[in-house]
DNA sequence: CAAGCGTGGCA
DNA sequence: TTGCCAAGCTT
């Protein structure tokens, strides 16, 4: 029998009151824009790498209109090595949409948030809960894992999020706005700090005695064999990363030959794709970050 | 809708 | 060492 949602919530939220990390986008003086920036930066990127970049961004571009007016090359350089630099482009597009369509204020409606560039279901829910303190389903990789273990007895959630999973997660969210926002933050934090993917710290877990996965003796992941592994060495993705690093580091145009990638055809494909993605521009002297 | 998209740290 | 994983989104 899985634990009742009410008991699960109470335990996790009580634990969170004491265990919550002191992150800058949780500070009392945070803005909705700061929360949105943090959520985009945190997509597939660990907190420790995001924090210094977030601080620099918020000092430099404290409002959406500031980022909207920035040079894209500066934005991409400030993004640094967070990875997935197209997120930086979308964040600037997002700032421009907020400036042009919402009077420079982050919209509070879920559908309006969802319509912003780079904002999907998770991020729209996270901003709703964390920036505006309103009820939302916030189902990220941490919460998915917590629910899979505590309620379903599975080691890990399914490789792809299902409709049924969202419905189940929705059923666990309290009705009250403040309580729902608290549950979102607390359940994510539990997944990030205790109920981790690799080696969970069940000794520190507030719901260890209720967890179906633990009570079942930690059965292994059924989908382990089907999870695709990320190839890396020699991939287009690595090549793109190498190009972007070279463009960020350069003051002027970078000749194609100066990038230092062994496979010329692959380099050309990557360059063309980066230009197509508006992450680079070609000039007579070489490639540059977009203005 | 499955695939593509960066990067670095850790078990 | 190397595969796995990290607050996903877009097409």
UniProtKB/TrEMBL annotation:
What is this enzyme's EC? 3.2.2.31
Record keywords: DNA damage included? yes
Alphabetically sorted, this entry's keywords are: 4Fe-4S, DNA damage, DNA repair, Glycosidase, Hydrolase, Iron, Iron-sulfur, Metal-binding
> Which co-factors does it depend on?
[4Fe-4S] cluster
**Molecular function via GO:** 4 iron, 4 sulfur cluster binding; 8-oxo-7,8-dihydroguanine DNA N-glycosylase activity; adenine/guanine mispair binding; metal ion binding; oxidized purine DNA binding; purine-specific mismatch base pair DNA N-glycosylase activity
Question: Which SMART domains does the record cross-reference, listed alphabetically?
Answer: ENDO3c (SM00478), FES (SM00525)
Which residues does the UniProt record annotate as the domain HhH-GPD? Answer: 41-193
**PANTHER family named among the record's database cross-references:** ADENINE DNA GLYCOSYLASE
Q: Which family does it belong to?
A: Belongs to the Nth/MutY family.
Q: What is this protein called?
A: Adenine DNA glycosylase
Species in which this protein is naturally found = Flavimobilis soli
